[in-house]
# Entry
Amino acid sequence: MASKVSVKESTTQYRTILSDLKERVYKPFYLLMGDESYYIDKVSRFILENVLTPDEQGFNQYLLYGSDVSVQQIIETARRYPMMAQRQVVVVREAQQVKELNQLEVYLRQAPQTTLLVICHPGKTVDKRSAFYKAALAKGSVLESVALREEDVPDWIIRYASDMKVHISPEAAVLLGEYLGTGLNKIAMEMDKLLMLLPADVRTITPEVIEQNVGISKEYSPFALAKSLSFRNLQKSLQISHYFGENPKSYPLVMILATLFSHFVRLLKYHALFQGSLKPTRQEIPSALGIHPFVLNEVEIAARNFSLKQTVGIIWLLRAYDKRSKSSERGEADDGALLQELIQKILR
# Structure
């Protein structure tokens, strides 16, 4: 099967389809598929809300679900003539549940121009070698909505803010990305909330603005602890861990250890890149590690402060303390005490 498109290509497909829809340039068929549901939901919702007028929707708009319909029922609905309107809209959600979906290729051979048939196929892609997929490309528009990687998130946040006429600093975008993860629905929802909270005269988002309005602190977070360890800053690391110990519900030890584990595994991968005869260029490293280029400087400093052997030992320590925290081996030590003990061992 053909490989997935890139995040950039996926975003371009989405923007092109949405731009055409806004200009009322319609295709008879839309195949919206892929790992990330955000773009699929945005396009299908726009079509449902904007192609037909409210009066036309009553007789000419159909919302079907894959678990309830067959391919034949979809085809029969799509081949109906619109009533007192130029076109009708048929949206099939959860189309991955429709058996023999490839049979839509027969429909596409003579797809009526009076119907917009929208197939929402989240979670996976259809077979790109199939006649159905090739017909979808030839007769309509195809969107392959791919999931973001960790390194893609800050740039996506920056573009999203720019579309809203707001500037966000790279540091602030990285901070948000670390906190929110890679799910676009969650990122967009939090960005919308943040933008609503911004005073009218504030059009630049900084880490301080995020801390004031979202509650994410660049000074006290698992990522801040990982950074202070990278710089071998014992005082700052113990200060952050003490804060975590005072707020165990907000900062459970299991979450902190998971973040530190990911941090040092990434450092291990960095060291591994330089073990062979072919050394990567500085421009190639972020993609190889799955990080944003803005974070590369921190990783390089960490690599100078922790050798390959030390990094392996720290990963072993993190596993040991994770096991200890979940058993009677911890004795009377609370999470804060365990974390401070771990930090001192990492930085000894």
